[in-house]
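Dock guanosine-5'-diphosphate; give full complex structure.
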Amino acid sequence: MPLSVQETEIKNPPVSRPPLDPHLKALENEAIHIFREVAAEFENPVMLYSIGKDSSVLLHLARKAFFPGRVPFPLLHVDTTWKFKEMIEFRNRIADEYDLDLVVHTNKRGAEEGITPFTHGSAFYTDVMKTEALKQALDAGGYDAAFGGARRDEEASRAKERIYSFRTPDHKWDPRNQRPELWNVYNGMIRKGESVRAFPLSNWTEVDIWRYIQAEDIPLVPLYYAATRPYVERDGMMILAEDPRLELQPGEEVKHGSIRFRTLGCFPLTGAIRSTASNLDEVIAELEIATVSERQGRAIDRDQSGSMEKKKREGYF
Amino acid sequence: MSATAASTSATILPFAESAARVTRDARPLRLITCGSVDDGKSTLIGRLLWDTKAVKEDQAATLARDSGAQNDLGLPDFALLLDGLQAEREQGITIDVAYRYFSTDKRSFIVADTPGHEQYTRNMATGASTADLAVLLADARAGLLEQTRRHATIASLMGIRQFVLAVNKFDLVNYDREIFDRISHEFREFALSLGVRQITAIPMSALKGENVVSPASDAMPWYEGPTLIEALELATARSTQAGGFRMPVQRVVRPGESFRGYQGTVAGGAIKPGDSVVILPSGTVANVSQIVTFDLVRNAAVAGDAVTLVLDRQVDVARGDLIASIDAQPLTGTAFDAQLVALQQGGIEPGKRYWLKSGSRRQRVSIEPLSQLDLASGQWRPHASTLTMNAIGKVRLAFEETAVFDAYDQNRATGAFILIDPDTLNTVAGGMITGKRANLGGLKREGDRVVLSLPADLAEQLMASELFASRREEVEIKRVTAAEAATLWRNAGSDI
Ligand SMILES: Nc1nc2c(ncn2[C@@H]2O[C@H](COP(=O)(O)OP(=O)(O)O)[C@@H](O)[C@H]2O)c(=O)[nH]1
């Protein structure tokens, strides 16, 4: 008797949608291929899950890649404890709904020493609570491959990033020593202690991400959609003012306005934009006329144009 | 980068009401750009990104700040937009392949940007491996250089069948039509000699943006061909839908006792439930009962699709196997001919055992170099020793276990491979299968002697001849049956 997929029990069976256009289909196929290749070639992969829109697309593709099986690796969230509250709620709901193994890691030492983005400055804080925390989590899990949602069009230093990005045992990225990557034949051979970061979304652009979210109806953290929210203005950024840890400085006041976020991270470091785009169609329409690239909302990139490369060399994802 | 932004920028592109919702009816076109240093490649790519509005405001601001002085047209130094890595920027050279993205209403594009200096063979091979089309730059003042011919040769070797010749800096030659005609004619002849027939030559000024995204009918009223972007929009994205069905098995999925599926990306042809397939190298036969994807069960899959196949019977299928149509099977054997590009310092050593990865299969192989391409003359010269970095060689592959390939010109996915050095684990070569080699050809060399396998009667006649008697030292004749001889000689095609 032929084996049939209907006989198997599938949690959250997918719904039928109109087919993707060939452009998105090609990107999707490529991402699925990468997911399967890494899952097959590495002993202990993990997916870095940042709860943002790129991570949401990445997760959706992972579910597609392994269907009708479960996603065969855990999701790792590095929780700085300074994420937006809605992000954490969303993360927990998604992990439950999609039957995922979720690993949450916080840099205990940093947390105990009271390192915060307010007291220690964004660079030091990021180094401890994100970069160091990520290394700790990867070491603790003994992961030999980590999926990430980085795209080559995000930032100049990413344009040369491989799909399999090779890392030394201490998680260093050496831009001069990356392996050549030809066709879609990936070299997954590594020594003990070495690892790769794998980037299934390498060839996607920001517009592709949004169009795919729309076409596939992928749920996102509501902060991506405009609503009237409290905020304070600081250093030219609009910071969400709902967490009691945000202390107002002299001259600052909480305002209310229709805002949304183009990128999500730690709330003190992530600026909102003024917007009335309260659903996906409106966000995309707004994106069409926007000419400010998405990372601009992040304090981390703004010092000088080589800064991301420096952070990558040091192990920042 | 925004699709609508692209539409508003250029006069030739109609304004779309909602570009993000425009369904693109084509896959992204992948292209590679090649040129010698100073031909204007960075300027051209910068111009493409700029004129399709792929450069966002803050990036432009960074650019303006970093470049300090702007050029005489008040435009930023586009090259800075492209140089990603600090080390390279400091040295003022590009040393690797970078990928750029831009789009118009009609299509999106992925550019592999490769440098023009000495390491170009390695980098070009990498960039060209996935490209559908090559844009070759020439400085209008200098015409075709040896370098341009080299780039074209490498691109054609890597399987690129569409060329655009960008005759750049045309503003510096008074937009002289004769210059364009001469360079484009010369290039056409050369490309044809490489077997490339789809050739578009375009006179342009990357600096001024003439014939890149916007037409230049004022400066060049005599030119009636497409702009670069039009040529790219019209180009065909490679497809391997013709030919037999191929799917390398990436993994086996068993979510429960009742389901067993084989996951992979269709590498050629098409498949539908009911089709008979063969699993290679074992040769087991089965029928496809279901094509499963997350978007429910499908009634067909074509090249490029990532799917899960269910077969109608319990068979032994593992990662690395190739599922192929039964009536159009690939080549199987333990000896193949190939061309390869050496990518690393140590080169490719004769006799050394490497890992070869093709599709999802990794196996041991040893390499016997036969000849090396002299890029300056385009000639293959006998070469049996180490192929040094950047060398392009013809080699013989000897496997310890059965290998399965198509010829690269039949199927780029099942005809391509990489070599991995077992000591460094680095990727040391990219290769393309040209054909299968019989282990025992009808005609082969053993030491100084030629071994000739012939049907017994013919063998006897020949051995009785005077000519044979006089050259006994040079030839050995083996008697085989007529049928064996026929097989040997058929397989020996590549030996002769
Ligand atoms: N007049 C003129 N100059 C150009 C043109 N394209 C590039 N250039 C100049 O040629 C020089 C080399 O260009 P660049 O893009 O850096 O070359 P690459 O080495 O091929 O990347 C620069 O000074 C450019 O401004 C063109 O179409 N016309």
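Observed: Chain A touches chain B through 80 residues (CB under 8 Å).
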